[in-house]
Amino acid sequence: MIVNARTGFDAIPGDIASTKRPDSLEAAAEQFEAMFLRTILKEMRKSVDAMSGDEGMFSSREARNLRDFYDDSLAQELASQRSTGIADLLVKQLSTGKTGQEKT
Q1: Which is it for the CA torsion 75, 76, 82, 87, positive or negative?
Q2: Per-residue pLDDT tens digits for 52-88
Q3: Using CA atoms, how far apart are residues 3 and 16, in angstroms rounded to an integer?
Q4: What is the pTM of this model?
Q5: d(C-alpha 81, C-alpha 76), whole Å
């Protein structure tokens, strides 16, 4: 007797790694939100640095590096909480299954 070797594994067409696309879309949207927030924080810090000059509290290179590390971790944390809604909007816009509209 021959037994079917198929185990019920259904890969999404076009997905080589057989991972679910919504998960990867969610992760990419979250990473984009973190990158966007990081850029905003960086530009805000530039304006503060320009006003404080060389005698400010964060004028040393080490202090600026620590502040940059903090900004990176803050941006990642805010993106993981989806506090701004950017990732949710990207997922909504880029996923065709949820909206019912196919791209032409």
Answers
A1: positive
A2: 666 666 567 788 888 889 999 999 999 888 888 888 8
A3: 27
A4: 0.61
A5: 9
Each domain of the chain, given as residue ranges in start order, spans: 21-93
Look-up of token digits 């909504």: 92
pLDDT in tens, 19-41: 455 568 888 999 999 999 999 99
Tokens 């940059």: give the residue.
Answer: 68
pLDDT for position 96: 67
Q: Which amino acid is at 88?
A: D
Q: Which amino acid, residue 15?
A: D
Instruction: Find out whether 33 and 87 touch, Cβ atoms under 8 Å.
Output: yes
**Radius of gyration over every alpha carbon of the chain, rounded to an integer in angstroms:** 22
N-to-C CA span, the chain? 48
d(CA 12, CA 50): 51
**Whole-number Å distance between alpha carbons of 32 and 102:** 23
**What local confidence, expressed as pLDDT, does residue 41 receive?**
92
